[in-house]
Structures are given as structure tokens and as C-alpha cells.
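Standup notes
- DV: blocked on the single-chain target, sequence here:
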Amino acid sequence: MRAFDYEGGRGGKGMTLINPYNFVPLKNEPDRTEWTKDPIKRHKIHMHHRLSKDTYSGHLILRFHTITPVFIPSYSQGDVCGTKDEPRTFKRFHRRGEAPIIPGTSIRGMIRSVFEALTNSCMVLFAETYGSNCYRASNYKRGECNSQNGLCLACSVFGTILGDDLPFQGKVRFSDAIGKKTDLESREWILRELSAPKPEHRIPFYAVDGSSPGSGPRGRKFYFHHNPKKVSNKNYITQVEHNKRNRKILEHLKAGSSLSSAMDFQGLTEEELGALVYALELEYKIVENNGERHIEPILAHKIGMGKPLGLGSVSILITGGNIEKGSVRYRSLEPQAAQDLRAQIEDLRKKAPEPSGHLRDLLSLSKYKQGDIKYPGLWFTNPANKKKPLGTRGEFEGTVAQVPETESDAPVSTAKAPLGKPPSGLPPDQKAVWLKEIYGKRLVFVDTEGKKVERRINDFQAKRGLLEAGKWYVLKGTKSVWPLKKQ
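- DV (later): unblocked, structure below
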């Protein structure tokens, strides 16, 4: 079986088509430390009651660099218009005063996801969502940590809670990442249509065996990084009409922005801290330019909305702070020398587990060089493909009957006015509309009151050959569109 390739599109002939997401396969059951209901024994195991001489504590200053635009919406009153059944508009980026911020809670979740995959920890989020419904299975044993099976490395570092049965405070805390007002860009962007994950509808993608949810989840889901130059092009992330199936944003954080954050930690073992600093900075290389040395990321994180479209790629660098053993951290509040801190970080990184090839592939900033990262479009129209799993590196496999259609802001055909008179005497649940614009996947109609109505071309229930811009049609219900001669 070969990787699916196609003619046309942005990638050109022979370009491999890659799904926007893939999975880090699951390993064996996580290694867990004992959890005991005896508070004295519990504190001794997890070191919350004192700073052991063998554990690390400290404060690290973090610099975030946005590689592609980032959007984290503000949900303050008046910043969001519309409901889930109406066109929704997000007016402002999340902020503190006038400064844009990436909330510390979002940073924590992003880092924990990488940390879990790196350390073969439990899957708390998956267990809470999919683990209890479509992936309910007797052989699915990667549920969250509890008082019976103990704590995995991620729960030990970031904490977990299961009612009164397992209250465990994490050992790390992230502050908000704060940028500058000038980092914000204001304009109208209409994001291409996205929806919530539907593992029950994409069993070949989400299930281990590609056919049954009972086989368990395929792994930990991450989104690939797109070509930053294409993500910055507004034509890549927008479409013309705003409807209830897409989202409009009026402000985002520009690519190339720099934000400052911090992380405090206490009582981490060498293994935990090594994995944590790797999960923060991931991998990079030193590049010399005009005699100056620069750090260039090789792997990066994803955060915020629009990740399948390429938004949200960020890198993190530790730029200062202190790392001390035991209670030494309280002997001085002076910052650690930069060269000493960097040497210590590099030494700790060597203690981190070796990341899998799948994790590296999913976090790679050069993934787009392997193919065109996008949802499959007409790939699913071929019945032979509906039950095919993704390739090991996220590529679609098999062949398609048609060349995938590409969407752009330029319509295939347009009309300035309808031909003939609108139909009359229609039932109350129908309306007359004339076809103004035809796009690769969308039809834009105008009703008798001059309001635009948009429909997907796949929803058209007559023959596609009958579509003609400038002619009258009848709109029935939410999807059906009929030519006049059907009346």
C-alpha cells in the first residue's frame, strides 16, 4: 500500500497528503509510585512536607516565541458574539489590561501533554472524555491514577484529584505568559470550518486495530506544525463567508511575538526535573549568524484555537532563574549565573527519557516538508478509503476517485444578477434564492430580501451539472437546494 498522493492543490503533483493530527502510540502500563492513605507515609513518598536534599526546587524564567499566529479568545462579556447555532465572532485575544496573555493554566496543560507522552504516564484527559464512552473496553487499562494503582510521573509532578480519594497537589506552577499590545494584529479572519474530535466516527484513525473501539485508543493525539510562511498568509486560514459552521476572529497574536512567563517548582526528583526541562524546551540547535550564536528550535509546542489550520505554534526557552537542591534555594535570592544555569539545564536534560520517534515527528517544525498537511477533503468519498487507518506518520493511504478540491477566496464563477423572475407561491418552509457565486466546495445564494445564504456543494440534492450562477433555485430546509423545474 502506498502513501496517497494527488495532482493539484498547494503541494503539486505527487505530494503526500498528511492528516493535521496523528498519535503517539501507547506503551505498557505506566510505572507508578505507591499511594497510601496514611498521611505521614504519603508525605514521605511525595515530599510535600519538606525539601529533601535529593530533590530540586527553584524558579525559571521562560520566553515564549510565536512561530505562527496564535489565538486564545477572551470570553469576557461582549467579547464573543453568536451561539453555537449562529455565526460566532471572537473579538479579542485573551488579555490582562491591554497586554495579551497566554494563561498559565493553558501553558500547564500544553506542557503536561508532552510530559505525559515523554514519560509514559497516564492519560487523564482521554480517560475523562473518550475512555468512558466509545473506548469503553475491558482491555483498556490506561485510566487515570487513583488510590489503588498509585501515581504516575505526570500526576506526581502536575498533581491530580479524584474526589476525596486522591487529593494530590502538583509541584509546579506556571504564571501567565505576558506579551505587548503591539504584538496584537487586528483584522477579520474567518477560520476554515472545524469541529470537535469525533473518535466514534473515525474509528480507523482512533482505534488501535483500526476497526473496533474495544481495542482501545490508538495513542496520544497531537497536531502537526504547518509551514509558517503559509500560515501567515490570510488566504490559507480564511474563507469568504461567515456562517455557523466556522468562526470569525478579529484579533490574534502575530507570528514573531515574544512573551515572558515563569515556572516555580518544588521537591522534584532528578528524573522529574530532567523530563520537565525537556518538555519545556524540547529540542533545538545552535546557529551562528554574523559571529553571533542563536538558538533555533527543531521541535515546538501547539496552543490555542485553530491548531489543525496551523495556528498556535510556539517555542519556549529558559532564559534565567535558579535551580537548587534541598533547602539551599532559601539561602540566597540572587539569580543564578546564566552560564551556570544553562550548564545545569543541559545536564538535567540528559536525565530525561528518550523521546519516541512518533513524538519527535509530531512536534517537528519541518514536518510540512514531507507533504501537504490538511484534512482529506474528497478522500472519504472513495468507499474503499473509509476503513483505512492513517499511515504511521499521519499520511493518508490508498487512492481517490477524484482530485481533492482546493478552496480559495476566488470563486469559480459569479453572477451580478439573476436571470428571470423569482418563483412565487412557495410553501412557508421554502424560499427562492439565486446562485451568485460558486466556489470549490461552497455555493453562495442570495434570497429575495438580498440576504446571502451559503450551502456546501455536497448538500446540493440535484445534479451538479445543473448549477449555474445567476439562476433561481428553491431552498428547502437546512440543506436541500432544488432547481425550479423540480417544482
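- Follow-up: The chain has two domains: 20-370, 413-486.
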